[in-house]
Amino acid sequence: MYDGGIYRSNELLEMIEDVGGVVIQKTRSAQMFTVTMSIPGEDKDAMEKMCRSIGGTVRSVPLAGTEIAIIGPTLGRHHMPHPVCDIAEILRQSGAITVVMGLARGRGKATSQISVQEMDIINEYDAAVFVLGNFKTCVEAKKHLFEKIRVPVILVSGPMPDGLEECCEAIVPGVGRRSERMRSPEDRKKLEEISDKVDEVIRARKKMIEEDPLFVHPAEIKQLLEEYEPIKECLRPAPMVLHLDGLRLKISMKDNIKAISDMSVYGRRLGDIAEISESRINDSSMIVRIMTRSEINDRDADA
Question: What pLDDT band is residue 81 in, cutting at 50, 70 and 90?
């Protein structure tokens, strides 16, 4: 990730293209410019030298190209915003796009619930971080909130619960509910521990995807869509968000599904190599999940 001024930023973008890299995300705020990029390993030193020469800094962001949901039981002030927002921020610093979400009926050990629509929304992300409270029995009783979630789940809570290892990929105790920001050195270490656990879970999922690779990398689809007029005109932040197995497009599916599906990717229609569906959040976004090579081969064999 490059952080610096807008001055000479065009040279940075040109170099990324020259080395065969991909711009994952770029953000401009007044005169400041942030670029999250993916480049070949052998060009890393040259890129770092280039960034320093134009007055910026560059650092590794292991969660780049992912979208992660951070979920609290409710949006009530005793559940939000601490430490949910601190966790979201530390994951952003590692390159992830983060979304904070509160459940409609998550409050209370005996009354907490999660709806089918909420589960469908959470399953659109690459991973989900559930942030629960300070009481061991309460945390253990709320396992139904995430035990049916299909994407990897990282549980963050105050005590270390028992019997939840099979419901989630990682558990980080020692946080729980609190009424202040996580600013002390001990708190920062805990936030880094959470970020490291999420990184481990994402790496494991990447390794699983590599066993049956996607037909095309999501970044290549992003490059294809960058010249699509509705996306160029979209005023929403980050109109395209990369996922591990696809991407989120923040444009209406009803108005764009035919044009998107008919785009050519290595001689095939995008609609034939990817599952395109409307986001469960609202009708102004769509999810593109790229099929694996084995799925494409099976489809070709059936045809």
Answer: low
Which two three-digit tokens encode residue 122? 């959470």
Which tokens sit at 259?
A: 């044009």
Average pLDDT (82-100) is 91
Give me the torsion for CA of 16, 17, 19, 24, rounded to 10°. Answer: 50
Distances (CA, A) of 72 to 41, 88, 110, 128: 37, 11, 16, 11
- Give the other-Cβ count within 10 Å of 186's Cβ: 10
- What is the rounded CA–CA span in Å between residue 191 and residue 197? 10
Task: For residues 207-231, give the mean pLDDT.
Answer: 92
**pLDDT above 90: residue 41:** no
Region 186-198 average pLDDT: 95
**To the nearest whole number, what is the mean pLDDT of the chain?**
91
Number of other residues whose CB lies within 10 A of the CB of residue 51: 20
**For residues 279 and 101, is the Cβ–Cβ distance under 8 A?**
no
Q: Which residues pair with 103 in a beta bridge?
A: none
Answer whether 59's CB lies under 8 Å from 29's CB: no
Q: Which two tokens stand for residue 67?
A: 């979208």
The one-character DSSP state at 292 is: B
